[in-house]
Amino acid sequence: MLRPCLVLVPVLLAVWLTGCRTGQPIATATATGFRPEKLAEIDAAIRTSIGEGQTPGGVFWLERHGIAYHKAFGDRAVEPVREPMTEDTIFDAASLTKVIATTPAVMKLVEQGRIDVEAPVRRYLPEFAANGKDAITVRQLLTHVSGLPPGLSLQKEWTGRAVAIAHACAEKRVEPPGTKSRYSDINFILLGEIVRRVAGEPLDRFCAREVFGPLGMKDTGFRPFDLAAGVVFTAADSGRIAPTERRAEGLLRGVVHDPTSRRMGGVAGHAGLFTTAGDLARFSRMMLGGGALDGRRVLRPETVKLMTSVQSPPGLARRGFGWDIDSPYAGPRGAHFPIGSFGHTGWTGTSLWIDPFSGTFVVFVANRNHPTEAGNVIGLRRKLGTLAAEAVRDFDFMHVAGALPPDPASAR
Q1: What dotted CATH number matches 100-204?
Q2: Domain ranges in the chain?
Q3: What stretch of H or E contains 80?
Q4: pLDDT tens for residues 256-271?
Q5: Residues 270/188, Cβ–Cβ less than 8 Å
Q6: Which helix (H) or strand (E) holds 357?
Q7: CA 167, 170, 171, 177 torsion: positive or negative?
Q8: Does domain 2-90+217-313+323-397 have CATH number 3.40.50.300?
Q9: CB atoms < 10 A from the CB of 25, how many?
């Protein structure tokens, strides 16, 4: 099932320019912005993935210079009853939480002089210094070179944010910090706690006030639906939330899929955010706009540059602060977007890739783990990134000034 969203083409150039300044998509993709045969290939690739059972559905959004192409595909739910996918479906963002919530929150506090990325983590979390971790810095958490293991153990029963932070601070290093790239949820669990302690309020409230509210991301937030209370915590309609995995206790819907975040109460620096393709598009326009959207500044231009330029040590996977640039997880870049573009993925099937050189971004959000974990969109993400670049008119992806050269060492 396919539902296109078309936006009227402006007649006057002045209107077009105004739309670009505000960051709003103001023309249909089939007008002049994208090659229709490539858009058809994108549609076909998503339909094929759905037909093969890799995801029940998804929402795709491609945008460049105010021209947008966005569609809903397949179904939002197949259990307990089938529900068609809609463009306003709310998805469990999984690890997109790291770059849509936690990283901008940290960087807002850096701008305010309240966090120093070169400072040791123990300055903000004194108990973290245990087990030889006293030299690990905030920078090393942000770039996944802290030497910490990938995640907290779930073998023993535990619940609560405070318990999770105690476990994270008690962890031992796997290797010396700064010597190896190791993607770790623990890094961002700790960063979320640093935000909480420095800001004096939980991560979800800080992000709502400082990031999502100013950007008009009305369907983005943590804990959108509490099954126990039966109330909607945000303006989002709970019926629009895409369910994820079927578990013994029931279908997860409006409750974060990530088990560690779930034990922490649904608010954590590594996972827990819910959002829509449209809200991710607004966030992407802000990033391409140097930290501002619709006249509202969320981050300084120099902060956005720090977040999206290489901050990791030479010879390791190239990452900005939070954002992936050139690592083994950078599949959504596809075959053509230049090295120096940036993005991130999420376990549930979400992905975002932004190319500042061509002014293009690609959003694909899906619930590939509904009703089980059998779905897989890793290959689809790569194909969509490739086709998206091929759909762009009038840009030479083979010769991009300012792009980074390939670095064989960055695959480690």
Answers
A1: 1.20.58
A2: 2-90+217-313+323-397, 100-204
A3: none
A4: 999 999 999 999 999 9
A5: yes
A6: none
A7: positive
A8: no
A9: 23
